[in-house]
Amino acid sequence: MVRNRWYHLATVTAVSFAGAVFVLSAIDTHRATDGTKPTVPSDQSADQPQNGTAEGIRVHGHWTIEVREPDGELVTRREFENALTSPGSSHLVELLARQRTPHKWGVRVDGAGDSRPCLLHGSPSGCNILEDDGVASTLPEAVFKTLTLSVSSSPTPEFVLSGDFTAPKDGAITFVRTLHGYCGPDVSPPDCVADSPITNFVFTQTSISSVAVLSGQSVLVTVRINFAPPA
Questions:
Q1: Residue 141: in which H helix or E strand, if any?
Q2: Cα three-residue angle 119-210-216, rounded to 5 degrees
Q3: Which DSSP category does 154 fall into?
Q4: Which strands, in side-by-side order, build the sheet including 148-152?
Q5: Which of 66, 223, 108 is nearest to 158 (CA)?
Q6: pLDDT in tens, 99-144
Q7: Domains of the chain: which residue ranges?
Q8: What pTM did the predictor assign?
Q9: End-to-end Cα, the chain, rounded Å
């Protein structure tokens, strides 16, 4: 009889405890569904971007082309953006990884057919504005060694390519690009000179609406390139 009473008491206690657990669980479930915010798991950061996306570093290039009369009078001023080429992106990686030794820069403006704005041996040609002993000195096109390279820190750090030439013929500029020369990784910067094996690389390029040029007019080109972090 005593054994039966203890068994009955233990059974009632277990059932009561299970019922209490069920009631507490029901109350907790009700709280999670009646408008109260549930607790955020600890592995979810509150400041994580909601859209899961972020922009990478942007290469931004801004061109200005001015056409002037011999007396300096402004005829045309054109501003536009350029585009980094896919090979140009690879070129940056190789430079930063010390797989290429940088040489000098060049700027090329060009047109189509007989409207190309320069001459080489009497035939229409593109116009290459280079640093002294610059990257495209071996190309079969007209060369003007007037390009300068400078660095500006305001308002955004950037490097600036500037140069000019006098048009030898009437023509039109419809295509532009920047060029960069480099040597192999086994060549030190001081030894990467004009008489070394140099590869010329198209860094940026873009097509533009036609800029007319007449023989004798000056063409001034400025290219500003910077590397901007995500906004």
A1: none
A2: 40
A3: S
A4: 74-81, 58-68, 218-228, 158-166, 148-152
A5: 223
A6: 899 888 999 999 999 999 999 999 999 999 999 865 545 567 899 9
A7: 1-32, 58-228
A8: 0.70
A9: 82
